[in-house]
Structures are given as C-alpha cells and as structure tokens.
Specification:
Elements lengths: L10 H5 L4 H8 L12 H8 L10 E4 L1 H13 L5 E6 L3 H8 L3 E6 L10 H7 L4 E7 L11 H13 L3 E5 L16 H4 L4 E5 L12 E4 L3 H11 L8 H12 L1 H25 L4 E2 L8 E2 L2 E2 L5 H12 L4 E2 L15 E4 L6 H14 L1
Parallel strand pairs: 2-3, 2-4, 4-5, 5-6
Antiparallel strand pairs: 1-7, 6-7, 8-10, 9-12, 11-12
Helix pairs in contact: 3-10, 4-5, 4-9
Keywords: Aminotransferase, Transferase
Protein name: Aminotransferase
InterPro entries: Aminotransferase_I/II_large (IPR004839), PyrdxlP-dep_Trfase (IPR015424), PyrdxlP-dep_Trfase_major (IPR015421), PyrdxlP-dep_Trfase_small (IPR015422)
C-alpha cells in the first residue's frame, strides 16, 4: 500500500500506443550499444515536454537515481555547500552529504507543508553551489505556488547557484492549474530531473533524464556517465519515447485513476478519524497521513505488515539528518488500481484492535 508509482501497463498496452515508425524501430532494433547522451529520437521526445528546451539540452540516464547521483558529484566538491529541502527522497540528502556540507530547509507540516523562501535564503552561503527541491514532493504530495517556484529559481540565478529540481511526479496534480513550470524552462542554469517511473507508471523501463540549457554542464554530466552505465538499454529507450509521445493520454489515465481512488481513501480515513489525520496530496500518487496512536507510527507499521500483510513506510524512513522531521507520519500510495483489498485488510486490522 506504500507504492510510489502510478499503476503500470503491460508491454503490449504500451506498444499499442506506438506509431508505425516507433513500432518498426522496436521490432527491428539491433541490440548494440546506444548513444551515451541517449537515443536522439528519445531526446527529441523529452524536449517536446518542455517549452524552451531542445533535444541537445537533454541527457538520458538509467532511471532518475543515476541522474541525481552524477549531477551532485559533478556540481559539488569538498568545500562546497548545498541546500536541500526536507523531507525528500533519501538520495537527495545523502548523496550531497557524502560530498560537502549540506543545510536542510524543512517543509512546515503545521502550514500545509509550506516552503519558507526566507529560510532558503537564510541557509545560502557564499560557497553554496546547489539548492535541491522536489515538487510534487515525495513523501508529502506538496506542490508549492508557481510564484514561489519562479522566485526560488530567480534567487538561485542571482547568486550563481544551480537549482536542482526533482520533477518526477509532475503531471499528476489534482488541479492542473497548480502544475509548476519546469525548472529548465524557468532558468538556463537550472536542472530538471524526470523519469518514466513515477507519473507515467513505467519504472521497469529504467529511463530517466536531466534537462538543462547549459550545454557545457550537460557535457560534463555526459562524461561522468561513462563511469556508471555508459549508455541505456536500447529497447527501453524506444519504449520510453513511445510513452513520452503518448504521455498526455497516459497521464490522463493515471490522474483519472487517482481521482477514482481518492474518495475510497477519504472514506477509509473518515472511518478512522480518531486514529489518523488525513489530507489528500496536491500532486503525485502518494500521501503522508499522520498517525495519532500512542504506540507510535513505527510500531503501528511493523505490526500492520506482520499481522495483516499490509506494508506502509513509516516516518523513520524519511528521517532527516539535516532537520527535525515529523515522527508520526507514514507514506501511502494512492495511484494503483483496486486499492480496496489492501484498505479492507488495513481496516479489518484496525477494527480488531479497537
């Protein structure tokens, strides 16, 4: 019940979305090495999802994690400083911490996980090289306002800092009006990280990318990739470009699934309002409810998986070494088909405890 990705599809379903050219490319693909920057047609498809980027501004990776890891290693050295918004995907914090000093700026749970830009500005030092953010946020589902995001990018540009923006859940906003601009569209220096895994629900492809209009930096990232994967899987790159060309329909399908699921989750948490504090996410396919029980969320989650076979991720998984973070939350996924069975097992376990 804690899945972080949207419902996936079978290979045949994805291939059914391909045009004749891409279907033939997949069927006739020769399984040699691919280009380190990524398949040119895939890079063009990625660039098509941005307003200001071209194919030459895109570098493909084996998932988002490789992109995050290499970007931090290229951008940061000992003696540098980074600012990271918390809570977050663990590597967003731990990879920079292995390289340099890092300051955390926590989203405020008391203010609907708001990001205080003044606190970000206060955290910046003369040697700050990177500010790392993630919206829609993992695990909270928070989406900040577009004006704040644009102001954050401008703040970084004014100080010569790279904004590193993890945008893997973009496209799953409950209200499309709240969809943020992509960092690479807002700033020539910013890096936008994305992947087929989360919003598109295709983690098995293992295709991610960084888009950045600073091509000198992109060339440095490409050289670093020679020390990790060198190049991506050819079949995955063709399948990824099929998915990206059909992203509007895939994202609409996944948003519809989340919209269908949310009333089911609303009803579940309404029944157990004395046990949980529930708020639907602004975007993405995960939520971060609060557990009100006196035994603590870590014990609750351990007993739940042991006694009912229902897996949730407790707050300890998102514990930050940089900032105080809530200890009473857990992540639950809302983007998979047919959550009723898991919620029924969860509910039955809760009723037996009463």
């Amino acid at each position: 019940m804690t899945a972080s990705d949207a419902e996936t599809m079978a290979l045949g379903e994805l291939l059914a979305l391909a045009d004749e050219e891409d279907r033939a490319a997949f069927e006739n693909l020769r399984l040699g090495y691919t280009e380190t920057f990524g398949d040119p047609a895939l890079r063009a498809a990625v660039a098509g999802t941005y307003e200001r980027a071209e194919a030459a501004d895109v570098l493909c990776f084996a998932g988002a994690e490789e992109g995050l890891y290499l970007a931090m290693n290229v951008l940061l050295d000992a003696g540098d400083h980074a600012v990271v918004v918390t809570p977050n995907y663990q590597a967003a914090e731990t990879v920079p911490m292995a390289l340099c000093e890092v300051t955390g700026v926590a989203l405020d749970p008391a203010r609907d996980w708001a990001l205080d830009l003044d606190r970000v500005a206060a955290a910046i030092r003369p040697n700050t090289r990177v500010v790392s953010v993630n919206f829609p946020n993992n695990p909270t589902g928070k989406v900040i306002g577009a004006a704040d995001f644009t102001a954050l990018a401008a703040m970084c540009d004014e100080r010569g800092i790279r904004l590193f923006s993890d945008e893997v859940y973009r496209g799953l906003e409950r209200d499309p009006v709240r969809t943020l601009p992509q960092a690479a569209d807002v700033s020539e220096r910013a890096l936008s990280l994305n992947v087929t895994s989360k919003a598109l629900g295709l983690p098995g492809l293992r295709i991610g990318w960084i888009t950045c209009r600073d091509r000198e930096l992109l060339a440095r990232l490409e050289r670093a990739k020679h020390y990790t994967t060198i190049c991506n899987s050819g079949p995955s790159e063709v399948l990824a470009r099929i998915a990206l060309k059909s992203s509007s329909s895939i994202l609409a399908r996944n948003r519809a699934l989340i919209a269908r699921n949310l009333p089911i989750f609303d009803a579940f948490f309404a029944e157990f309002a004395d046990t949980f504090e529930w708020r639907a996410p602004d975007g993405g396919c995960i939520a971060y409810p609060r557990y009100l029980g006196t035994d603590g969320v870590e014990e609750m989650c351990a007993r739940l998986v042991r006694e009912a076979g229902v897996l949730l991720l407790p707050a300890g998984v998102y514990r930050s070494e940089l900032t105080p973070t809530p200890t009473d939350r857990f992540r639950i996924g809302i983007g998979r088909a047919d959550p009723e069975e898991g919620l029924a097992a969860f509910a039955g376990w809760l009723r037996r405890r009463r």
